[in-house]
Structure formats: structure tokens, C-alpha cells
Amino acid sequence: MDPFDSLEFQRDVQPREAVSAHIRHACTKNLTPARSVSRRSRLLLTALVAFAGLLALLAAGLHDHHDLGSENALYGTLGWACVLLVVLGLGVARPPGKRVRWQARLLVALLVPLSFLGYLAFEASETLPMDRALGNEGTVGCGVYTLLTSAVVSLGIMLPWRRTDPVSPGLTGALLGLGGGLVAAIAIGVVCPCREGWHLWLAHGASLVTVVLIGAWVGRRWLAP
Amino acid sequence: MEAYVDGSTAAFDLLYQRIGARLFGYLIRLTRERERAEDLLQVTFAKMHRARDSYLRGSPVLPWAFAIAHRAFLDDRRRARKRQEDLSHDGRLPEPASETLPAELSDVLELALARLPDHYREAIVLTKVTGLSVAEAAEVLGTTGAAVKLRVHRGYKELRQYLEDYQRTR
Predict the structure, then answer these.
(1) Could you tell me the pTM of the whole model?
(2) Which residue range forms the structural domain that includes residue A79?
(3) B100-170, which class in CATH?
(4) Across the interface, which of B38, B52, B159 has its CB nearest the CB of A16?
(5) CATH fold of the domain at B1-84
(6) Residue B166 contacts residue A123 (beta carbons within 8 Å)
(7) What is the C-alpha separation between A127 and B74, in angstroms, rounded?
(8) How far is A34 from chain B (nearest CA, A)?
């Protein structure tokens, strides 16, 4: 027999009257109809922001460089665009509590940036000594630009999901940050003419890792109700 | 819940009547302090109120509300760990409450439950005390139904062990 079934233990406990009155007052004062947005609309908005971000960054980059990069880079871009869809799908496609196990999502949030760094190492045509790469103004400028655009796209992707995840907001934020970071890294990877190893790692790769961490931090504050 | 989202005060009253006590029961067993549970109940309803536009129409309210309460508890516990311990009037740390053996079986069970690791206690409280289904409890805890069943099973084993030890010491 279940020991919980026969015990007084199960009896409902009630909060004090004053507490209930306070809650009622706080929740019904100026109660107005709230505009509730469906999950489908939010998903659509997220996809639109990601796509618009990708197009805008590509257009801005092509305006400056007039070059689409090598064929390999384009195939890589297509591959990473597929990864981006998987990341966004794992992040928000299903409601909180019904998503893939958190361990699997954490693994994706860790492995995708690492794989991207590996891909960049594979993409590099040459690797200069680190001090020369760090001293290069182009690397610093490109890194700052990638980080800022990643952050803007990530925030745009997160915006439709404000206060929607009471279960694991930090992890969802990390995945949405990763999604925004991938959008920026993919677009800038196509248009950036530099294929030097340290440039790719520091300017393109490090911003992805950073935006995942920022996404986790922002997610805890923004995505939790 | 949908009527509450649409701005009905009567709907809020009905919602509070239906889930308020269950949420409070859950929180009081997580915190083991009545006042802290009351604070967290207020926080939970304030968060539900603020996030009512993100509630997905037609979906079950209980797992959503319990997930918010669970998150409120975790945030509060994290903040409490950062806070310094309160000192008593003479500047010393407060004495821990003396542990006397409880007389009633229900009290023994409460005490045993309080001693369980958090993840076992949460799974047992959600499924056995607040009456959520395994699937609903899994939604609240952000894990799978199989993991909830395993936690309940292991929690029960520890409870049984504690109750047997208690029987021997009486």
C-alpha cells in the first residue's frame, strides 16, 4: 500500500487570508486583456528575424567586398545553415517541458561552437604567428563587428520568446544565442575575404562562443516568466 | 486561465481557488518554511500574471504554474545561499533546532521527506502529494517521464529505509 494514500499528510494546506488577499489584489488590479501570441507566430517571427539578419549581413558584406568567397565556403555555409535550423528547433520548436532532454540540448550548445571552431581551422588557408594576427586591426574590427551583429540577431531571435520558458530559460537562451551567433558567423564567413587561421578563430569563432554565454545569461533573465 | 488572460477577475478567483492551495502545498514541502512558501506563492502568482500573455491557449495550466513555482523556488534558494547567515542578538550564529523524534506517522513521513535529496523530494511531492501525472511532473522538472519514475522509485527506497530506522529506534 502507498504510505501517502492513508495519511493526513495529503491534506491541502492553505496560505493565510492576508496572503491570498494580497495576491488577488496584485493580480486583478488594473487587469486588462493580454494579447497572447501563438507558438506558431513566435516560431515564424524567429525564422523571419534569422533570415532577415542573414540577408542584411550578406548584403552589407557584399556591398563592401563584391565577392562571395570560395565554393567550399559556400558549401560550408549551407551545412551550417542546416545546423542553425536544428539549433533553433531544439531551442524553441516544442513547448518548455516537452523539449528534448536538457542534457542533449546542453551537449548541442557545447558541441556546435566547438565544431564550428574545428571547421574554421579546416577552412584556414594559412596561419600566421599569433602576435601578428592579434596586431592586425582587421582581426579586431572584424571580431567586434561579428560580436555586435551576433548579439543584435540573437536579441531579435529571443524577443518573441520573452517570459515563455519557466523550465530551462538559461539553456534556451544559450541555444537562441547560438542561433543568432551562427547567423552572423555564416554571413560574415561568406563575405570576409581573410582566410588566415587566427583571424577566423578570434574574429569569427570566439564571438560565437561569447554569444552562447551571453545568451545563457540573458535567457535566465528574459526568458523565464 | 484563458478567461483570466482575457481580463476576467472572476476567472482569476476560480484559478486561485483551484490551484492556489496545491501550489502552496508544493512550495511548503520544498521550502519547509511556511512564511517562505507564502512569499514564493506570491512570487509565483506575480510571475504568472506578468507572463499570462505567453501562456499557450488550450495547454494544461498545472504544469505551467508548477514550473513557474519550481523556478521561483530555485532562484530563491540560489539567492539564499549567497546571503550571509543571520546572527542572533548576541552576535553568535543561531542554534540549530534540536531534533526530537516525532510521534505521529504523518510527522515522521514529513521529516523523512524533508531529508530526501531535492530531486527525489520534488518528484515525490509533485506526483504523490500534489497529484500531478508523471508526464505533467516531467514537464515541470524539464525531464522525461522515465526519469521522474526513477526518482520517485529511488526516493521511496530512501523513505522506506528511514521509516525502518525510525521503527527500530522507537
Answers:
(1) 0.77
(2) 38-222
(3) mainly alpha
(4) B38
(5) Rna Polymerase Sigma Factor; Chain: A (1.10.1740)
(6) no
(7) 47
(8) 5
Q: Which residue of B has its CA nearest to A163?
A: B51
Residue A14 is assigned to a structural domain of this protein = no
Q: Which sign does the torsion angle of CA A15, B66, A224, B123 carry?
A: positive
CA-wise closest residue to A118 among A159, A66, A83, A153: A83
CA-closest candidate to residue B61, choices B145, B2, B127 = B2
Residue from B35, B31, B163 nearest B107 by CA: B163
The string over B135-169, giving b where at least 16 C-beta atoms fall within 10 Å of a residue's C-beta and e elsewhere, is ebbbbbbbbeeebbeebbebbbebbeebeeebeee
* Lowest-pLDDT choice from A44-48, A93-97, A163-167: A93-97
Instruction: Find all residues with CB under 8 Å of A113, minimum gap 6, and list them.
Output: A178, A181, A205, A208, A209, A212
pLDDT tens, position by position, A176-206: 999 999 999 888 888 888 878 888 888 888 9
Note the pLDDT of residue B125: 86
Reported ipTM: 0.71
What pLDDT, in 10s, does the model give residues A6-55?
Answer: 554 555 678 888 888 889 988 888 788 877 778 888 889 998 998 898 88
Per CB-CB distance under 8 Å, the chain B contacts of A100 are none
Q: What pLDDT is attached to residue A216?
A: 94
**What residue ranges do the domains of chain B occupy?**
1-84, 100-170
Name the residue among B97, B101, B106, B143 with its Cα closest to residue B122.
Answer: B143
Assigned domain for A29 exists = no
- Residues with pLDDT less than 50, chain B: 96-101
Identify whether A32 is part of a domain. Answer: no
Residue A23 parent element (H or E): helix A17-28
Mutual orientation of helices A169-191 and A137-158 as an angle, nearest 10°?
A: 140
> Is residue A25 domain-resident?
no
* Number of domains present in the structure of chain A: 1
CB contact under 8 A, B24 and A15: yes
Q: What are the residues whose beta carbons fall under 8 Å from the beta carbon of B52, sequence distance 6 or more? A: A34, A36, B1, B4, B5
CA angle B6, B9, B13 (to 5 degrees): 120
